[in-house]
Specification:
The complex is a heterodimer of chains A (452) and B (347). Chain A is mostly helical and 452 residues long. Chain A contains 20 helices and three strands. By secondary structure, chain B is of the alpha/beta class. The chains are: A mainly alpha (452), B alpha/beta (347).
């Protein structure tokens, strides 16, 4: 009532406000409040962007080093008297020579190289060989077992340098920081400098970080993400094969066929609740049900995949139901109107129209599962595990393996600082996967989404 | 629908392959995070030198590992448990209850426990067990009576130590290292300061109860339990210039550019001083094998023999290089493994 009497058009009272072109105090206050709010918003976005930049810069500055590694190129004489005493190239006998038996060959190769190139050093052969990774002897042995005919010849090898030497070339290890270090001496670093001059030792791109297997605490230079990537891949395969059909079937039934009663209401509420359950709970469930009760193997990507399926199902069901709901009822009515059965209407008309939304939801669910570590802790997928590359699909699913985030966690807690660099490198690889998956989801949505 | 058929057959296939795969062909190890680096070094070398697949080594702490070890016999249980302490009678009993009766105990060597602080922080070079007891225990002896611990700085009870606030990061209770710390440092300190006697007098001469009271640590934030690994302790030390942390010797030797080791009773920790017995805080490391799995899990016995062989666990082997103090009685241990002597028969 009062509003009406106060209307400016009322001629009996003088106009309370001046011209619209003049700002009175109240308008100024309102405008100022709006300005302030905009500034708050910009500050919030600015803080978010700043955090993102700090994160990205941090990840890349710490992790890029893992993609480069120091290699030493050496010619090794595969001495027959040491590797095959009887000279009959019997593989069983050659295998009896352990990696410890190969170490002297590397020392000899260093001594020969130093003599040939005139590098001045007072180091004994063992100290020279110590700048190499402990994997060098194993590399030699694998080569000899694969090519027994090469015994007695001189072959050129590219060995990894150990993590201290690698750190020295990357600037992580300095002459000051090794004063108390028992693993490397200043003389060895002088020798490394001389080798670098000579071109024997160089830092190059390290493919084996992307393709290789995990390595023990003594040889961080040899560790790679490859096998744990396969572990993640097999887990995602299980998740996709199980959660997509189950999730889509469940949501079609709930959305299109189920009667709306208290039972379906309870199911609906619980699906939403399930989406909010912490992932570690699924890990405990997996341990109790899949390993202790069903006796599936420990540390197997199959079990990991099953656990992550439980975690991904709610995400897929919720997004599928949302996209089914978004299909207008007129489509169903039209299909039913021309005589289609309910099932034909759903499968021939509604589902294809909802497919882009379902795919997007699935990809985002998979991306979430890919980055999950907590449930894997409990089913034994964290540890020194990713060392045997699977040789078939069955062994990929069943033989012990790790997963990318679990591998990163494992590296981050090891003693040698070189592993820390690799953990950051692993994060870069994991992020690339996640960004790719999310980009695919966005593209699919853009490309196929229809609005009514 | 072919869709539904595919799902069903996919599930059936998964179930089938799972049952077919129960035959496990690699050794499964779990337990102490202190032993983990050694076990993974051995596992890697084992995979390289034998035709068996590389064993799987998980961590999680000695108690957690032994608990899993005692779950029973069968291919879905672990074969080897690593421990940074001896198995307890209660654990042996739990094992026996679950059917794990024949356990082979293998001592691989010794590990030193070191106290370290930030490289550029104050120097703690006059530690005695008594000092750590005074700094960390719940109750200390003051003027002949047991009172609640109110010491705020190291210099409050020992003039040789720096006047810095007390902050100590010690391993949490699920770690085997904690027990060694309690026994070798806190209990020794309790005795040295006379608190043990005071506790005994308080409860009528009950030695066990007195020892237990000794190991109660203060809860006012000066002593911080770290449940994670040494890297977490390192991170705390990094951000805390006067903090002191408990580490394994091998971890310290890999991080000499960040940490400075404190002396204990005037001796600096090193593989030499531990081997000679001069450095007081060291403990044996063990692994336990389920005898019932030998012959069932391929490579289990070979792995155990390889672990304690001279090439690996000897004084010049890779384990010693990493920081393990090799066992002078390694030959006895080798005999235990090769003859599969179970606990109770090899004492």
């Amino acid at each position: 009532m009062t509003d009406i009497t106060n209307l400016p058009g009322n001629a009996a009272e003088p106009r309370k406000h001046g011209s619209l072109l003049e700002k009175d105090a109240r308008t100024a206050r309102r405008n100022a409040a709006e300005k302030r709010f905009q500034v708050y918003g910009m500050v919030a976005i600015g803080i978010g962007l700043l955090m993102l930049v700090i994160l990205v810069v941090n990840i890349f500055s710490q992790g890029l080093g893992a993609f480069q590694q120091t290699f030493v190129t050496l010619e090794v004489q595969l001495d027959e008297s040491k590797l095959d005493k009887n000279g009959n190239r019997n593989l069983e006998e050659i295998k009896k020579v352990s990696t410890f038996g190969y170490a002297p060959l590397i020392q000899q190769a260093f001594e020969a190289k130093v003599a040939a190139d005139g590098i001045e050093t007072a180091l004994p052969g063992k100290a020279m060989a110590d700048i190499l990774s402990k994997s060098a002897a194993a590399q030699l042995r694998d080569f000899v077992i694969a090519n027994p005919d090469e015994i007695g010849k001189t072959v050129e090898f590219r060995f990894l340098a150990n993590s201290r030497v690698d750190g020295y070339l990357k600037g992580r290890v300095t002459r000051e920081s090794i004063v108390n270090d028992k693993n490397v001496t200043a003389e060895q670093l002088d020798f490394v400098d001389a080798l670098k001059e000579d071109g024997v030792l160089a830092k190059t791109f390290n493919m084996s970080f992307i393709t290789g297997a995990d390595a023990s605490d003594q040889r961080p230079e040899d560790a790679g993400m490859g096998v744990s990537m396969l572990g993640s891949l097999f887990m995602m395969l299980v998740v996709l094969i199980l959660s997509l059909p189950i999730g889509v079937a469940a949501s079609i039934y709930l959305e299109e066929f189920a009667a709306k009663n208290w039972l379906t209401d309870i199911i609906e509420v619980n699906i939403s609740n399930l989406a909010a359950v912490p992932s570690i709970v699924f890990g405990i469930l997996g341990l109790a049900v899949f390993i202790n009760y069903m006796h599936l193997p420990m540390s197997a990507p199959l079990v990991g995949g099953l656990v992550l399926t439980l975690m991904t199902l709610p995400t897929i069901i919720i997004s599928t139901r949302a996209s089914l709901k978004a299909v207008p009822p007129s489509i169903r009515d039209a299909a039913l109107g021309v005589g289609a059965s309910k099932m034909q209407a759903v499968f021939h008309h509604v589902l294809p129209l909802a497919a882009p939304g379902i795919l997007t939801g699935t990809i985002i669910g998979l991306a979430q599962a890919l980055g999950e570590t907590a449930p894997l802790l409990l089913i034994g997928m964290v540890g020194f595990i990713a060392s045997n590359a699977p040789d078939s699909i069955a062994s990929g699913l069943l033989s012990p393996n790790s997963a990318m985030p679990a591998q990163i966690y494992e590296w981050a807690k090891r003693a040698d600082p070189a592993f820390y660099e690799r953990a950051w490198g692993g994060i870069i690889i994991l992020l690339l996967f996640l960004i790719t998956m999310n980009t695919v989801a966005v593209i699919l949505r853009r490309r196929f989404e229809r609005r009514w | 629908m072919s869709f539904a058929k595919m799902t069903v057959s996919g599930l059936a296939l998964a179930a089938l392959s799972a049952t077919a795969a129960v035959a496990r062909d690699q050794v499964q190890v779990a337990g102490s995070s202190t032993v983990l680096p050694y076990a993974s070094i051995v596992a890697e070398a084992f995979g390289e030198n034998f035709d068996f697949p590389t064993p799987v080594v998980e961590s999680g702490g000695s108690s957690a590992g032994l608990k899993r070890f005692c779950e029973g016999v069968g291919e879905n249980t672990i074969d080897v448990a690593n421990a940074s302490r001896k198995i307890k009678d209660s654990e042996v009993k739990a094992c026996a209850d679950a059917g794990v009766t024949d356990i082979i105990e293998v001592r691989i060597g010794y590990d030193g426990i070191v106290f370290a602080s930030q490289l550029n922080g104050p120097a703690y070079d006059a530690f005695e067990p008594a000092d750590l007891y005074n700094a960390l225990a719940a109750k200390v002896v003051k003027d002949g009576a047991l009172v609640d611990n109110t010491y705020a700085q190291w210099a409050d009870f020992n003039g040789d130590l720096p006047a810095e606030d007390i902050v100590a990061f010690i391993p949490g209770t699920k770690h085997g290292t904690r027990e060694v710390f309690e026994e070798k440092v806190i209990l020794a300190g309790c005795e040295a300061t006379g608190a043990l006697e005071a506790y005994k007098a308080e409860n009528g001469g009950d030695e066990k109860a007195a020892e237990k009271s000794c190991m109660t640590l203060r809860t006012d934030g000066k002593s911080v339990d770290i449940d994670g690994d040494y890297t977490e302790t390192l991170a705390r030390i990094d951000s805390n210039p006067n903090g002191i942390g408990v580490f394994g010797l091998a971890f310290y030797e890999n991080n000499t550019d960040k940490l400075k080791v404190a002396t204990m009773s005037g001796v600096a920790a090193s593989t030499e001083s531990i081997a000679s017995g001069e450095y007081p805080v060291s403990r044996p490391l063990f692994f336990y094998i389920k005898k019932a799995h030998i012959g069932v899990i391929p490579g289990l016995k070979e792995f155990a023999e390889f672990f304690v062989s001279d090439e690996i666990a000897g004084p010049d082997g890779p384990l010693a290089q990493y920081g393990l103090v090799s066992d002078p009685e390694l030959a006895d241990t080798q005999a235990v493994v090769s003859e599969e002597k179970t606990m109770g028969n090899n004492s």
